[in-house]
């Protein structure tokens, strides 16, 4: 599993964190409820898949509908991305079989829960957002991605 390390709580205005992606790791498809997500690749290459936000009212099958991908792109070192719920929902991951990846994320405003979406049914599940480590204000001189 990828790790989420909190670097700064931003006085309640934002969360700044480092995500470390081992080979082949990816997030579930998820949203950023009423928040802007800025992501910068610090190491390696990460892949983003953007999906249309599911509309269960137009689904023809009672078992749900497959998520519809609308775009995908790679972000190499120093590339920056922005996503909001207006853009859609997304999945981020490290497709490399050799190299790890590290990304810096700023979420404004911060959020404590988000929704993840099942690839095959578009079923939405609310999940709590947590951190593997909390170095807010004290990361200097310490490895955040151990």
Automatic annotation (TrEMBL):
The keyword Plastid does not apply. Its EC number is 1.13.11.20. Its cofactor is Fe cation. Belongs to the cysteine dioxygenase family. PANTHER family: CYSTEINE DIOXYGENASE, CYSTEINE DIOXYGENASE TYPE 1. It catalyses: L-cysteine + O2 = 3-sulfino-L-alanine + H(+). Gene3D superfamilies: Jelly Rolls. This is Cysteine dioxygenase. One of its GO terms (molecular function) is cysteine dioxygenase activity. It holds the Pfam family CDO_I. Fe cation binds at residues 30, 32, 90. InterPro entries: CDO_1 (IPR010300), RmlC-like_jellyroll (IPR014710), RmlC_Cupin_sf (IPR011051). GO terms for biological process: L-cysteine catabolic process; taurine biosynthetic process. There is a cross-link at residues 37-107 (3'-(S-cysteinyl)-tyrosine (Cys-Tyr)). It is an enzyme of class 1 (oxidoreductase). The keyword Iron applies. Keywords: Dioxygenase, Iron, Metal-binding, Oxidoreductase, Thioether bond.
């Amino acid at each position: 599993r990828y790790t989420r390390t909190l670097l700064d709580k931003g006085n309640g205005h934002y969360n700044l964190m480092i995500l470390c992606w081992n080979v082949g790791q990816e997030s579930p498809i998820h949203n950023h409820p009423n928040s802007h997500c800025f992501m910068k690749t610090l190491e390696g290459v990460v892949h983003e898949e953007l999906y249309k936000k599911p509309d269960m009212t137009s689904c023809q099958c009672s078992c749900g509908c497959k998520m519809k991908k609308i775009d995908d792109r790679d972000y190499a070192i120093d590339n920056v991305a922005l996503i909001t719920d207006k853009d859609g929902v997304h999945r981020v991951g490290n497709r490399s079989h050799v190299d790890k990846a590290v990304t810096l994320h700023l979420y404004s405003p911060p959020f404590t829960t988000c929704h993840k979406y099942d690839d095959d049914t578009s079923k939405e599940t609310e999940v709590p957002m947590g951190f593997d480590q909390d170095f807010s204000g004290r990361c200097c001189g310490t490895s955040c991605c151990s």
